[in-house]
C-alpha cells in the first residue's frame, strides 16, 4: 500500500445542492471504503457546476468543465455515480460522458491515451430496474477513453419498482451493497496501484 492514490467521485444526481442525494450517499460510502486502502478522494456533484454541452475539452465562456477536467486527470480512480431514470442513466451523466469524449484525442509524452493508467468504478441507485444496463454503458464509454475496470467494479442498489423509498431513506446499508462496495474499492485500489507502479506499455 506504499503508492499514494487519489479518487474523484462524480455524482450525476439531478438534484442541486443542498438537496439530499442517494447518488452522493453511495459515492461517499465508496470513498470511505477506498480510504481503507490508502486512497484519498473527494466527491463532486456535477449538477452544481455549469457544464456546457459539447464534446470539447473547453467549450468557452461560462464552461465549468475545464476545472472539473483537471480533477479527473489528477485522480487515479474515477467513481462515476448516477441515479436510474426510466431505466437509463441520468441526463447529467450523459453530459459528463459527452465531455469526457474529448479525452480520446489526448495523449501523454509516450503517445498513449492520457487516461490509460487510471481506473473507473460505477455506482448506480434507483427504485427501478436498469443497473446492469447502465453499468454496461458506463464501462464501455469509460473504457473507450482509456480507463480500466476492476473485477466486480460496480455497486448498485435497486429499490422496489414504482415505490418511493430511495437509497438515502434506508435505515442501514443492505449487506449485499456493503459487500459490493468493499469489493469494488479493494479491487479498484489494487488495480490502480499496479498501474501507477507499472503502467501499460507504449508498444
Automatic annotation (TrEMBL):
Source domain of life: Bacteria
A single MF term (Gene Ontology): oxidoreductase activity
Gene3D superfamilies referenced in this protein's UniProt entry, alphabetically: 3.40.50.360
InterPro entries documented for this protein: Flavoprotein-like_sf, FMN_Rdtase-like_dom
All copies of domain NADPH-dependent FMN reductase-like, residue ranges: 8-157
Identification of the protein by name: NADPH-dependent FMN reductase
Species in which this protein is naturally found: Microbacterium foliorum
Amino acid at each position: 500500500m506504499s503508492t499514494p492514490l487519489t479518487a474523484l467521485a462524480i455524482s450525476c444526481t439531478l438534484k442541486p445542492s443542498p438537496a439530499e442525494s442517494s447518488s452522493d450517499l453511495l459515492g461517499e460510502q465508496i470513498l470511505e471504503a477506498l480510504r481503507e486502502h490508502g486512497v484519498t478522494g473527494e466527491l463532486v456533484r456535477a449538477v452544481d457546476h455549469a457544464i456546457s454541452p459539447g464534446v470539447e475539452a473547453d467549450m468557452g465562456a461560462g464552461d465549468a468543465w475545464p476545472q472539473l477536467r483537471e480533477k479527473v486527470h489528477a485522480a487515479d480512480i474515477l467513481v462515476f455515480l448516477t441515479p436510474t431514470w426510466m431505466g437509463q442513466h441520468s441526463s447529467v451523466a450523459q453530459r459528463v460522458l459527452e465531455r469526457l469524449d474529448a479525452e480520446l484525442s489526448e495523449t501523454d509524452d509516450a503517445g498513449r491515451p492520457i487516461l490509460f493508467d487510471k481506473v473507473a468504478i460505477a455506482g448506480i441507485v434507483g427504485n427501478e430496474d436498469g443497473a446492469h444496463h447502465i453499468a454496461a454503458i458506463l464501462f464501455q464509454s469509460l473504457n473507450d477513453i482509456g480507463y480500466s475496470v476492476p473485477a466486480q467494479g460496480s455497486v448498485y442498489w435497486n429499490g422496489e419498482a414504482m415505490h418511493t423509498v430511495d437509497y438515502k431513506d434506508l435505515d442501514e446499508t443492505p449487506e449485499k451493497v456493503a459487500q459490493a462496495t468493499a469489493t469494488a474499492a479493494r479491487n479498484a485500489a489494487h488495480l490502480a496501484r499496479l498501474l501507477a507502479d507499472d503502467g501499460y506499455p507504449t508498444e
